[in-house]
């Protein structure tokens, strides 16, 4: 509903009578929790989708008062479908002991929260209207369309407010919502209860005390220290240090600011209790593998080691997947997203490649993502297995000939690998600043810089396609405006994915540096960098002028 831009035609001060009419269209508990006027200035709280029905809360109201509407939980990867305009399908809703189906009627506003990779519930990320009652959904065995989505995180209604991030929802939110619509029935059941035997009353109490004791004991953490250290090291290297880090980096500083900060909640890491005893020994051991070292470490003196080079294409880095590691620092408001962008390049398996891949003995499926080096290893293994190696050349059997489309009987290794990889679909997986993952095929979008001359021979810098990388154009425009003391604004443009930035003067150099250093966007994903003002060596110019004056004298 708010995926496209909208304009506010007029603002009207409500009369007290009109305000009371609107309050009557809110849930009773929601009306009690609506804040004062001064606290909600310029923050959209409700919108009117059906004049005859209930007012629909915005995400800001749902974050402020999670009890304003029933909440359903979906996996994180399912939210991308809602964000692209789809309605909520019931098979995607998580229903278990922790997240039970709340009670609601058809037409009730529904919030949709997300279960992230750290097993934490955040949100809501979307607001919609129930197309069926909760009873009808369960009768249909959770099949079909359940909620019509009206408002999502990052849409234009969200941009109208302060653009906060979704908070973490505590378990008691879901416990409280189970009482919606059932309070009266529970009260009647309690009134009808009669204790007939004192022993019967004491027996459940003993069971409860026993269960409480078990809960207080808690599960025993059996994860080896070495395994915890390795996954925190990989998470810290990939997500906290990042490709945009300025090398060299002190090893001790990397351990304290990157590795330790990735520790999962409730866990402690003591390297002395591991087989390595020291972090330096761990780095030496992890560099000993068939794929080569991950880090290059140089010594600058006794006890001073620095990281001078990182192999970002190393298999252990590219294959690493987050579980419960903390890759960003969370604040009291629910945690601000990490601003870094991480882009991994893959090749997607296509139908013509299936015979060759299956001939290597591994099972592959169409669309599966693999690294380019994996294809090289698989082709090399197949050539050796079939005895097709002929020095620097490779003999082409019928399978290799059909896949590579090379007409000759032999070809060199580079040509063969390039031809085979060209038969696969180039795929890019982006981890956006807000934690979402986005998949792009064939070609990556680019941030495009342009210079235009406006009235009065004034130059302006135009930046397009920031939204393609999950970047907030308004935030970047404000940062640029403050830093360079020039006017900056955002506008809609058919040439830009999302909002376009227009800045006074030639600011290509500053904005590109901001994108690379603050957000981790690599230079190859930006076009128009040659338009930046060349840095002048004023000291050299001054010496040249002095020499010219001396010659004249």
UniProtKB/TrEMBL annotation:
InterPro entries in UniProt: EIF2D, eIF2D_SUI1, PUA-like_sf, PUA_eIF2d-like, SUI1, SUI1_dom_sf, SWIB_eIF2D, Uncharacterised_CHP00451
Return the annotated region ranges for Disordered: 199-221
> Which GO terms of the molecular function aspect are on file?
RNA binding; translation initiation factor activity
According to its UniProt entry, one GO biological process term is:
formation of translation preinitiation complex
In what residue span(s) does the SUI1 domain sit? 447-519
Q: What is this protein called?
A: SUI1 domain-containing protein
Q: Which organism is it from?
A: Mesorhabditis spiculigera
């Amino acid at each position: 509903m708010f995926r496209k831009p909208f304009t506010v035609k007029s603002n009207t001060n409500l009369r007290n009578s009109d305000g009371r009419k609107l309050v009557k269209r809110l849930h009773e508990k929601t009306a009690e929790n609506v804040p004062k006027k001064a606290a909600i200035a310029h923050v959209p709280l409700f919108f009117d989708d059906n004049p005859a029905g209930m007012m629909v809360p915005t995400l800001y109201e749902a974050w402020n008062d999670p009890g304003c509407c029933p909440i359903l939980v979906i996996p994180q990867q399912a939210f991308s479908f809602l964000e692209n305009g789809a309605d909520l399908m019931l098979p995607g809703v998580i229903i278990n002991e922790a997240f039970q189906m709340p009670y609601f009627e058809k037409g009730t506003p529904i919030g949709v929260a997300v279960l992230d990779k750290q097993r934490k519930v955040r949100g809501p990320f979307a607001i919609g209207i129930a197309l069926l009652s909760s009873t009808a959904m369960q009768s249909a065995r959770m099949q079909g369309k359940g909620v019509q989505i009206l408002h999502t995180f990052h849409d234009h209604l969200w941009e109208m407010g302060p653009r906060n991030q979704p908070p973490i929802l505590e378990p008691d939110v879901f416990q409280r919502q189970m009482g919606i619509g059932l309070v009266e029935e529970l009260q009647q059941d309690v009134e009808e209860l009669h204790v007939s035997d004192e022993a019967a009353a004491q027996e459940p109490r003993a069971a409860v005390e026993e269960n409480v004791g078990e809960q207080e004991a808690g599960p025993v953490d059996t994860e080896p220290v070495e395994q915890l250290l390795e996954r925190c090291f990989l998470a810290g290297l990939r997500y906290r240090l990042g490709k945009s880090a300025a090398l060299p980096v002190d090893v001790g500083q990397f351990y304290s600011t990157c590795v330790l900060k990735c520790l999962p909640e409730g866990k402690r890491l003591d390297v002395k209790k591991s087989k390595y005893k020291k972090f330096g020994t761990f780095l030496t051991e992890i560099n000993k593998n068939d794929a080569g070292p991950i880090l290059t470490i140089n010594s600058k003196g006794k006890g001073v080691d620095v990281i001078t080079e990182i192999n970002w294409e190393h298999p252990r880095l590219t294959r690493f997947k987050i579980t419960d590691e903390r890759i960003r620092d969370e604040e009291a408001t629910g945690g601000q997203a990490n601003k870094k962008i991480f882009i991994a390049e893959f090749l997607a398996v296509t139908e013509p490649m299936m015979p060759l891949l299956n001939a290597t003995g591994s099972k592959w499926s169409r669309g599966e993502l693999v690294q380019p080096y994996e294809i090289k290893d698989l082709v090399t293994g197949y050539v050796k297995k079939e005895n097709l190696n002929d020095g620097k050349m490779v003999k082409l059997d019928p399978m290799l000939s059909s896949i590579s489309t090379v007409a000759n009987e032999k070809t060199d290794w580079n040509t063969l690998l390039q031809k085979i990889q060209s038969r696969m679909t180039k795929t890019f997986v982006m981890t956006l600043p807000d934690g979402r993952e986005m998949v792009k095929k064939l070609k990556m979008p680019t941030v495009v810089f342009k210079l235009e001359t406006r009235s009065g021979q004034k130059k302006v810098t135009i930046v397009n396609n920031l939204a393609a990388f999950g970047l907030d154009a308004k935030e970047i425009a404000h940062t640029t405006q403050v830093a360079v003391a020039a006017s900056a604004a955002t506008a809609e443009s058919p040439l830009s994915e999302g909002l376009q930035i227009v800045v006074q003067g030639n600011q290509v150099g500053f904005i590109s540096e901001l994108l690379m250093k603050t957000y981790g966007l690599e230079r190859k994903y930006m076009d128009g960098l040659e338009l930046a003002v060349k840095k002048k060596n004023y000291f050299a110019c001054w010496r040249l002028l002095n020499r010219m004056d001396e010659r004249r004298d």
